[in-house]
Amino acid sequence: QVQLVESGGGLVQTGGSLRLSCAASGRTFISSYAMAWFRQAPGKERDLVATINWSGDTTSYTDSVKGRFTISRDNAENTVYLQMSSLKPEDTALYYCAAANGGTWYGRADYWGQGTQVTVSS
Fold it and tell me: Is the dihedral of CA 19, 20, 26, 28 positive or negative?
């Protein structure tokens, strides 16, 4: 079992930057899991934003954030990050951290955080 707690959300102007953090706790080290960030805007489905494998050497991004967002992890600190830059109003959403057993992301989350709100003003 693993618990995930996101932080770092807030209100930022268009073009600004934020860094989200996802701290993992529990009886298993985060290095056992692939990690991902999702987001859900009001009235829309939850969408996958970025993924990272257990070692951090394989990442993926949805097209709309490529070149602007960077996912990374520090297994020693049991933390995953999402560095977001050149933010746009359409990035406004509740951002969730997720973990998947096995170390490689295959499309299914086994654990979820509670989310952190990101709001980008125009």
Answer: negative
Per-residue pLDDT tens digits for 90-121: 999 999 999 998 889 988 999 999 999 999 99
- Residue 92 φ/ψ region, left for φ over 0, alpha for ψ in the -120 to 50 degree band, beta for the rest: beta
Which residue type, as a one-letter code, is found at position 107? G
Q: What is the largest CA-CA distance in the chain?
A: 42
Q: Mean pLDDT across the stretch 74-100?
A: 97
- The answer to whether residues 48 and 60 touch, using CB atoms and an 8 Å cutoff, is no
Give the CA distances from residue 81 to residues 5, 48, 95, in Å, rounded to whole numbers and listed in that order. 12, 15, 12
Per DSSP, the three-state class of 96 is strand
DSSP label of 15: T
